[in-house]
Design goal:
By secondary structure, this protein is of the alpha+beta class. α1 runs parallel beside α4 and α4 packs across α5.
Amino acid sequence: MTPLSVPEYRVALPKELVAELAQRAADLPEWRLGDDGLLSPETAARYHVVLAGLPRIGEFTATCHRLLDAPEGEGFAVLELAELFDAAGPEEAGMRAVTALVSLIATPLRAFDRWPLWKPLGTNLTIDPMRATGSGYNPMHIDVVNSTFPPDYSALLCVRPDPRGQGHSLVSQVRRAVDRLGYSDAELLTHPKYVDGAFFELTGVGEEWKPFPILDGQPPTEGFVRFTAKMLADADPADPYIKAARSLERELITGQRRFLLGRGDMLIANQHLCCHGREPLGGGQEDVPEDERRLLLQIFLRGQVRHTAEREVVA
C-alpha cells in the first residue's frame, strides 16, 4: 500500500533541531514586551543568539517564509511542535522555545492588552457559538479586521484538540478569491461601508477604522482584504454592499482547505493572503468536562520590515 503523502503546508521540525533546542530551552529568557506590544528587541536578540547555531534552523525558517509569504502560495503553514514540547520538559520551557522559533519568522505581538502574549482560546458553551471560543461554525475572517494596521500573521497553537474529533480548521487564499469576483462586486468592496465589533484595549494595531472597506487598494505585501463573515450575520441581505461581501464569502468557501489540528500543531496564517475559520466542534460538548474540551493558544506576529512605523491609511 502506498503511504499517504504529507501535505506540503505541514512543517515537521528536524529531529536534530528538536533535540538541540530542547537542551537549550533553559537558556532562553522569559519574554519581555515593549510599550508597542511587540517582543522587546533585547529578548528577540537573546533568542536569536541561542537559536543561531542550531542544526538546520536556516532550512526551517526558509521553509516557513516560502509557505507563508510567496504571493502565489497559500499563505499558511502548520508547524508540528508536539515532539519539541515533549522534549523540552516543563511547559514554560516549551513555550519559550516555541516563542523563540516564531520570532525567527516575525516579531511576536500582544495586541489585546487584557490578555497575555499567548491568549487562551478555550471552549465556552454559554457564548455565541460563532465566536473564537464558541463551539459552532466560526466563518472566514482575518483577525482585528476593523483596525488600520491588523497583525501581519495570526497563529493558533493546539494544546488540546476536540475530543469529539471535529472542529476542522479552515483556510482560504483571499487574494485568489478576490480575483474570481466580477468587476461590480470588487468595486463595491472598495467602499468604506463595513463595520465589525468593538475596538478597545488594543496595542500595536493602529487606530479603529469604522466603517472600513474590504479592499484597501494596497498591494498584498502592505494591504489587507479586511473580510469577516461575522459582520454579515445580521446585515440586510438586499444591501448591494452586503451582496458583494457575500459573493466574496462564497469564493472563499469554494477555495477553502480543511484539516484537523492535533496536539502541538500550530497554524500560522499570513493575513495579507489568507483568511481562516473553524468548523463546528463535535456534538455532546456539554458531556465533556471543561478542562478536557478543545484548547488553543493564539499569538499575533508583526512582519520584520514593518514594525518601525505604522503606515498611514487613507480612507
